[in-house]
Amino acid sequence: MYKSKQAFSALAIMGLLLVGSVFAAQTSKSTKPAKATTHDASGTVVSVNATSLVISHKVKGKDEQMTFVLNPETKREGKLDVGSHATVKYRSENSENVATMVKGAAAKHS
Questions:
Q1: At residue 90, what are phi and psi to the nearest 5 degrees?
Q2: CA–CA dist 9, 69 (Å, integer)
Q3: Which tens digits make up the pLDDT trace of 91-108?
Q4: What are the contacts of 38-42 at 24+ separation with CB within 8 A?
Q5: Full-prediction pTM beyond 0.70?
């Protein structure tokens, strides 16, 4: 009887250790943040303010507008004026295009 209690206790302890190690492995995997995929876009600035940028670019021969959220983390290079050319690196976040880098260049004159 005493040996069966010891065997049962040993099995119970081993089971708890196994469950604990599996839980710890799952927790460490889930704490890694997902790497956000970045995209590129470029076009002509339609409007710009402190928190947003709208550019117009061609998609299959048609002009389409894209709106980007600008925040304090957005890296900005060059001048962003209406009519100037802009290149934007962005990520999709909560159904919005959040700009991570914006580079403005003077408008091309033809």
A1: -150, 165
A2: 59
A3: 999 999 999 999 999 876
A4: 38/89, 38/90, 38/91, 38/100, 39/89, 39/90, 39/91, 39/92, 39/97, 40/87, 40/88, 40/89, 40/90, 41/66, 41/87, 41/88, 41/90, 42/85, 42/86, 42/87, 42/88
A5: no
User: Tokens representing 100?
Assistant: 């991570």
Q: Which phi and psi (to 5°) does residue 80 adopt?
A: -110, 100
pLDDT tens digits for 41-57? 999 999 999 999 999 99
For the chain, how many residues are written? 110
Q: Which two tokens stand for residue 64?
A: 């389409």
Token pair of 58, please? Answer: 């061609």
C-alpha of 54 from chain center:
19
